[in-house]
Each structure stands twice: as structure tokens, then as C-alpha cells.
Amino acid sequence: MARKRLDPAVFQLPVDRMTEGYYSDKYFVRAREVLESDNYRPDVLVQVFGKSHAFLGGVDEAIAILKLCSQSWGDLEVKALYDGDEVEPWETVMTIEGPYNAFAILETLYLGVLARRTRVGSNTRLVVDAARPKDVIFFPARHDHWLVQTGDGYAAHVAGAIGVSTDAQASWWGSEGIGTVPHSLIAAYGGDSVIAAKKFAEFMPPDTRMITLVDFDNDCVGASLAIAEELGDRLWGVRLDTSETAVDKSVVPQMGRFKPTGVNPQLVHNVRDALDAAGFGHVKVVVSGGFTVDKIAAFEKAGVPVDAYGVGSSLFSGRFDFTADVVKTNGAPCAKFGREFRDNPRLEIVR
After folding, report:
1. All domains in the chain, ordered by first residue
2. At 1, is the pLDDT very low, low, confident or very high (cuts 50, 70, 90)?
3. How far apart are CA 296 and CA 303, in angstroms?
4. What is the spatial order of strands in the sheet that 308-311 belongs to?
């Protein structure tokens, strides 16, 4: 059974601007002008690959660019892998065959979306694997430009994140963002975490997953217990987000045997133990603040009782660049030295 791809309309591309070359490297625009002026329309095979082990993102978006912005999609034959596929270095992830004039200026665009979405998707998959079977929530919206949210959210979703933080990030698969009671709402209610949580529960729909931050007063145990007493079964979880330069009140008496700052294993144990002892075993513990693959792996190896990880800026790290090369011209091998055609039987024709 063929796997499903996203409808090109989902991406809301600025087709006119893309078609005229507004977002393309100028040398591609000029290359097309040369071919058109010379009345020369060579048939080429372009091969797209990356140089890192990765989990693909941006494939459907790249296909949408080719479908909607090429001169004649019907003249092209495109083969591609799928969003979420695991790929090896130098593995061909897409081929485009047809008149070069029809798609010459689109290389900048489809390589760019592949690079961006693959970076987010690969980093998300790594933290999802490190946290498994715990949940990972995608929290990096505030660390980059708002225009990238939609595609980044979808890349994270495909990679296994169970939730994203904005409606834009969730839009491509018809969902919505999830969130917690924020520090700002607590501050708006005079720094009273209990009142803020109570008001949130009062005015949000009853099916809203109720998660509240509990580190506003640097007393995660005290705030967690007080909010759990107030909300009971309505409270789904508490979120620990202690600053990496602060030591939580409950941890101070235990200092001397571990790094006490930020969200550390001892703090999580303190909160979990306190909730369980008070009869609130149903309340989940969510952690955030500086979590990376290595930190999550260390928490899981140590058996820290975390139920879900909120991960932010680390999901934008690293480089996952892609390259496109003409490897055949008019049916004959013709490629830059070292970039010969490499077939990939995993590629599927795009309809």
C-alpha cells in the first residue's frame, strides 16, 4: 500500500514569487535565462542527497514546490523517499528528471526545506529515542522566527513528538498546540501559583490537559502539593523548569553529593515522592529547561521518575545540509567529478 503524502495546498506556498525566482540563488535564475535565450531545453536527471545520517523531513514540502512552481510538472518524473525515513550519508533521497529549464530555479528552495526540516526531525527523533517510552513535547517556538513554525512542527510530529506548543506547528495535520500554566499568568495573579492554576482550570475547556509550572517560588514540592490539593483529579501534571543557576528549596538540605542546580534528578524524586505520599500518584511530572539528548539519556539511565520531557532550543542544533547535482544530460552520464549517479531502490515515484 502506497504511503500518503501531504497535499501541496497545505504548505500555502507563495507560488508567484517562487516561480519568478525571488527566493532562488541568482545563478540559478541566470542559468535559466541563458537556456531560454539559447532556445536550449536539455533533459537532465538531478540527484539529491545529504551527507549525514538523518531522519528525513521536508520531502513533501519539496515535492509541493516542484509540483506548484515548476514550469511543467507533467514533464517531470520525481522519485523520493518519505518524511520520517531514516537515511545514511550520501544516500539519494530524491531524483528529478525532465527539462532542466522547467525546474532549474527551484533547487535553492527544495534543498532549503529539506535541510531545515531534516535538522528538526533528526534532532527530535534522537530525543524521542532517548526518552522512549516517555513522551517528548516540542517546545522550541520561541527560539526561532515565527515563519518556520508550521514545517518545524510537522517535522517534529513525524519524528515522534507527542505534542507541539503552537497551533501553527500543529496545523499541517489538523491538530492544535498544547501548553501549561505559564510563569507569566502566575505573575499576573500576584505570584500565586495556586490561584493561577485554579483560574486556568476554571476558564479553560474541561478536556484541556491541565499542566502547570511549579517553580515560580523556587519551591516545586510545595507548589505541586498545594495545586494538587486544590485541583485534585483535574490536574494532569506539574512541570519543573527551575533555572539552571538556581537550587530548589527542597534540594538545599540534600546538597553536597550532586550538582544541585536546575532540574536535576534529586528534584524530580523529591516532587514525585511528595505527590505519591500525599495520594496524588495520578499527577504526572514533566520536566523542561536545557534538556538535550545526553541529559535525557542520563535521566533515563538513572531511572529518574519523569513522565514527559519538554525540549526546546537543542532541537535546532547541528547541520543536515543537502546537495543536488545534475548526473545525466540527455540520457548520458554527465556529472561533476565524484558525483556520479547512485540509484536507490527505496525511492518511489511521486504521483
Report:
1. 8-118+319-349 (3.20.140.10), 132-316 (3.20.20.70)
2. low
3. 11
4. 163-164, 135-138, 308-311, 284-287, 237-240, 211-213
- What confidence tens digit (pLDDT) does each residue in 266-325 have? 999 999 999 999 999 999 999 999 999 999 999 999 999 999 999 988 899 888 999 999
Long-range CB contact pairs, 17-23, < 8 A, 24+: 18/65, 18/68, 18/69, 18/106, 18/109, 19/69, 21/105, 23/108, 23/109
Mind giving me the DSSP string for 194-227? Answer: HHHHHHHHHHS-TTS--EEE--TTS-HHHHHHHH
Q: Average of pLDDT values for 1-26?
A: 93
11, 61 contact by CB (below 8 A): yes
Per-residue cell: 57: 523531513
Considering only CA atoms, which of 55, 305, 315 is closest in space to residue 164? 315
pLDDT in tens, 50-102: 999 999 999 999 999 999 999 999 999 999 999 999 999 999 999 999 999 99
What are the percentages of helix, strand and coil residues in the chain, rounded to 5? 45, 15, 40
Residue in the block written with cell 511528595? 274
Q: What is the pLDDT of residue 3?
A: 87
Whole-number Å distance between alpha carbons of 254 and 8: 56
pLDDT, tens digit, 9 for 90 and up, residues 234-247: 999 999 999 999 99
Query: Per-residue pLDDT tens for 131-152?
Result: 999 999 999 888 899 999 999 9
What is the Cβ-side half-sphere exposure of residue 138, based on CA atoms within 13 angstroms? 35
Per-residue DSSP letter, 97: E
